[in-house]
Amino acid sequence: MKPKLLLTALLLFTSFAFSQTFDVNGTVLDGSSMSLPGVNVKVKNSSQSTTTDFDGSFKLSGLSKGTVIVLSYIGFQTQEVSVSDNKITVKMIDDAKSLDEVVVIGYGSQKKRELTGAVGLVDSKTIEALKPVKVEQALQGTVSGVNVTSQSGAPGAGLDIRIRGIATNGENKPTAIIDGYVGDLSLLNPNDIETITVLKDAQAAIYGTIGANGVILITTKMGKRNSKAKLTYNTYAGFQETSRKLPTLNATEYVLLLNESYANAGQGIKYPNVTGFGKGTDWQDEIFGNGVPIINHDLSISGGSEKINYSVSGSHLDQEGIVGGDKSGFLRNTARVAVGADVTDKLKFKSNVIYTYFTRKTLNENGLGSVLFNALNIPATINPYDADGNFTVIPREGLGNEIINPLAQIANTYNTYNYKKINGNFGVDYKIFKGFVLSGNIGFNTSNSESKNFAKQVSYGDKVFDVKQSSVTQGAVNDNDYSFDLYGTYTKKIGENHNMSGTVGTTVYKTWGNGLFATGYDVPYNSWEFADLSLITTISKVLTNSSYNYDQRRLSYFGRLQYDYKGKYLLSAMIRRDASTKFGPDNKIAYFPSFTGGWVVSDENFFGEPKIINFLKFRASYGTLGNDQIGDYRYLSQLSGEATYVFDNELVSGRAEGVLANPNVKWEEAKKFDVGVDMKLLDNKISVVADYFIDTRKDLLIPGIAVTGIGGIGAPGAGAPTINAGTVRNSGLEFAVDYKEKFTDAFSMSVGYNVTFLKNEVLEVKNETHYIERGSFSVGQQAPTRMEEGKPIGYFYGYKTDGIFQNQAEVDAHPSQLALGAKAVPGDLRFVDINGDGVLDSKDRTNIGDQIPNATMGFNFQMNYKNLDLGVYTYASLGNDLIRNYERNLSDVNHLDYILDRWTGEGTSNSTPRVTTGATANSIFSDYYVEDASYWRIQNVQIGYTLDPKVIQKAGITKLRLYVGANNLYTFTKYKGFDPGASTGDPIAGGIDYGFYPIPRTYLLGLNLNF
User: Fold this and answer.
1) Up-side HSE of residue 529: CA atoms within 13 Å toward CB?
2) CA dist., res. 305 & res. 226, Å (int)
3) Residue 517 burial by Cβ neighbours in a 10 Å radius (0-12, 13-18, 19+)
4) pLDDT at 714 over 90
């Protein structure tokens, strides 16, 4: 009887227990009481989980009273809530603990509070606000110590990134690591990026020989675990216009000035009747387009289950050029698939594959004879078209043999460039035992490109650009590389206070490829439609071809040990061993050690209760990094030169020794020192980061230093060897402050400011002259820029002026300027006798400016009020100079209107010389052609409005944001040229303005849509 009673009681108890479980319906809100979709909701100590719907709601079944659920979402604190009823509402709290954020540092990660190196960060929100066409543009003004300059404003043009200054005469660009493999930053779709981390100091030593110029780590977006599929569509469309036009003389101003110029030379005037000319042709209006379109689409799907997350995306960008119409443009398509999976409890898999395709058409730019050069120099008196509607032929008389009609130049330009690339990585993490994880990663890049350029047979009036025989040049290039990383990370906590982490690994890297180019003549029908080598019928001797191939390899070993005591004493030591095929047997191996340390002062007992200062950390780093950016096998003699021999009384083409070998060539070595401080103030509302750094680059890899004439280095394909022959030092101070405040649930604001002060000095150039010249000015003049001991790299070397001669007495009292080109008369530039020897000649050239800014800074502002948001991003560069080299020194060319303030008699001007067609020394390179190119630019302004989710949720939409924006809105500068921030990309001759294609001003209307 008792067993039956016990069984009955047990059944009743079980029934009662089950009757206490219930379904829970919940709602999750953000700090503004708005519904928050996509929040991860998990039952603690259980596998049961879900995510909130578009209206912030969720449902969990079979819970009992007291069950704890965990809610987590990026940007908010993780919260635990105990269930007491079948309906709950949770309001998420903004996460102010940014110091606990994890930062990628290369072969691992660290919490922000534990970082001991100088690191800059850019997140996806900043990228979304800036709307960059290329990723590099998102770094300008957002990260201290990073300067981004454009080589041109043309669609698809390259950008140069300099981290803490120009350190070498050769390649200065940093290494880009995309999800663990070496990649190309410029080809990424900006909307695929989650975070950008910039390693600026010795912490980059973990990358050894590719880390000297800094390292940029890219983390791409992945879907969230335990979340439903999320569909995101972003698009914008807009129009572009030139950001600047130069004020050239109109037709009436021109003819009056030209008459004066001829009269001053004692010649008869060209226009006896100066009436009826009016304004004439504005050649800039003729070549610049208005309302030039740009359009972008991005579509992504992401999500995940408990063990798998994924992200699939695609993008399309189409940008036309503001010069040239359909002859200039850039089109880019990308596709990306990323997957992460927990194969077992110990094995994790990840992959990321990106496909990129782009096409680009270009015009002649940034040089003598470019489209913009012609538009600036042709007089406004000349019409674009003649009476028959054909392009006007620009006369040779007074305008030389290189100035041609830019409209005809555009019409006769035919070229195309197609590029296809697949790159990505596959990686696994395997947990061998507690605390030890073995990681393997294979990264790859493979690309193919095709180019075609058609030179149409055309005459521009007996000019140097006349094409007397049509031709087509086609090229095909194949580039490949792969890397294999294998490394293990062991993390151990000893006792309560000691934390250690060690990483040891190896990297194998190989890159190889080839290129083939050929030119054929007499294109059928002299037409682009038939411009193809397969249609060329001329004899083989009329065909020319060339090719190349390369193969480079690198084997590396690396290790890192990190230690902290109570999280307040932080130490890290790294070493990397690299072996490269670029260097000979005696120098192929190099070691790159570094050390970093930090002290979290605010964790000390003596610091007391944080009041004003909530967090304070001092840190320091020192280490050695490398740079191997030179051609292959410079330590060997190769038959890469061209030669012509007499064989059987005939001239026969053959091979000769090419660039002379240097068996002692070795790595460039960068010694980087940094001390810094990180602070959080006033309840973590203000963050401050300051760094002082010294970067000394020695053993610079300088090509072409003449060591002997015996080897015949002047022959085609031959050359002087590459020698380790220079030292450059960059030192400076970086400071960044950010302020974030949430005033009410409806209103929040953030402000950021950063500034970098930089000093650059060349310490050594090991050749006979102790300097290297580069660049060009006007025609036939000496190189205007130098890399010389004791001066900034790329400084300007020319004559210094001291105003204008006002009368003959001043001329007579001054040393003769005849050796500079002509005897001076009143109204001419007065050059300074630098060495005081009473003679003005080439010995009086001196430092008259340089391209390197004294300071760069960024100021950024964001504001949110209810559903309205506003963002403003600006950038400034102070103290940088540019050489004005887009004006041709010919008698009848047009001029900028500053020449209207010329000297016309004693006391009329002390800055702009007289005009004359006669011989003067005024056109010789001097500081008259050097200008202060300091500027402040409003880079981006964007205003957006997000619709109330309650309005759009019935359509299944979780977010709908509309915005208007403007990029490159306005540049404040005194510089006369198109763009004070442009550069040729040459580290020595980058400060010469040949007539830069201006960066367009862009107006955008966009949409962000989430489902």
Assistant:
1) 1
2) 4
3) middle
4) no
Alpha carbon 254 to chain centroid, angstroms: 40
What dihedral do alpha carbons 711, 713, 716, 718 form, nearest 10°?
A: 80
On whether the CB atoms of residues 955 and 911 are closer than 8 A, the answer is: no
- Asked if CATH classification 2.60.40.10 holds for the domain at 21-91, the reply, yes or no, is yes
Contact indicator for 156, 419 with CB cutoff of 8 Å: no
What residues form DSSP beta bridges with 515? Answer: 477, 548
The DSSP bridge partners found for residue 861 are 751, 872
Task: Using a pLDDT cut of 70, give the percent of the chain over it.
Answer: 95
CB-based contact 1005:809 (threshold 8 Å): no
Distance CA 38, CA 339 (A): 19
Residues paired with residue 447 on neighbouring β-strands, in sequence order: 421, 479
CB 602 within 8 A of CB 611: no
Residue 754 has a CB neighbour count (10 Å cut-off) of 23
Residue 716 DSSP code: T
Whole-angstrom Cα distance, residue 311 to residue 350? 11
Beta-bridge partner residues of 123 = 195
- Which is more confident, 625 or 52? 625
Q: Does the structure show a pLDDT above 80 at 485?
A: yes
Instruction: Pick the more confident residue, 790 or 713.
Output: 790
On the question of a common fold for 21-91 and 102-231, the answer reads: no
The residue written with tokens 């059987």 in the block is 648
Q: Are 330 and 358 in contact (CB under 8 A)?
A: yes
Contact 372, 287 (CB under 8 A): yes
Amino acid residing at 219: T
Is 965 in a helix, a strand, or coil? strand
* Residue 328: half-sphere exposure toward Cβ, Cα within 13 Å: 25
CB 394 within 8 A of CB 382: yes
Provide the greatest CA pair distance for the chain: 138
Residue boundaries of the structural domains of the chain: 21-91, 102-231, 785-1010
Q: Which residues contact 408 (CB under 8 A, 6 or more apart)?
A: 391, 458, 460
Residue 362 has, within 13 A of its CA and on its CB side, a CA count of 18
User: What are the structure tokens assigned to 218, written together?
Assistant: 């890219």
Question: What's the rounded Cα separation, in Å, for the pair 417 and 421?
Answer: 13
Distance between CA 216 and CA 119 in Å, rounded? 10
> 23 is written with which tokens?
């379904």
Phi, psi of 466 (to 5 degrees): -60, 140
Query: pLDDT tens for residues 277-313?
Result: 999 999 999 999 999 999 999 999 999 988 999 999 9
Q: Is 366 left (phi over 0), alpha (psi -120 to 50) or beta?
A: left
Provide the token pair at 894: 């047009």
Q: For the domain bounded by 102-231, which CATH number is listed?
A: 2.170.130.10
**Contact assessment for residue 699 and residue 669, using Cβ atoms and an 8 Å cutoff:** yes
Beta-strand (E) ranges in 273-346? 292-304, 308-320, 329-342
CA distance 974 to 980: 9
In terms of Cα–Cα distance, which of 750, 599, 767 is closest to 685? 750
pLDDT of 32: 56
Residue type, 733: L
DSSP 824-874: --TTSEEE--TT-SS--SGGG-EE---S--SEEEEEEEEEEETTEEEEEEE
Q: How many CB atoms neighbour CB 18 within 10 A?
A: 10
Q: What count of Cα atoms within 13 Å lies in the side-chain half-sphere of residue 273?
A: 3
- Is the entire prediction scored with pTM above 0.70? yes
The terminus-to-terminus CA distance of the chain in angstroms comes to: 63
Q: Which of 566-575, 599-608, 635-644, 912-921 bottoms out in mean pLDDT, i.e. has the lowest?
A: 635-644
Q: Are 634 and 624 in contact (CB under 8 A)?
A: no
Q: Provide the pLDDT for residue 519.
A: 93
DSSP 213-254: T-EEEEEE--PPTTEEEEEEEEEEEEEEEES----B--HHHH
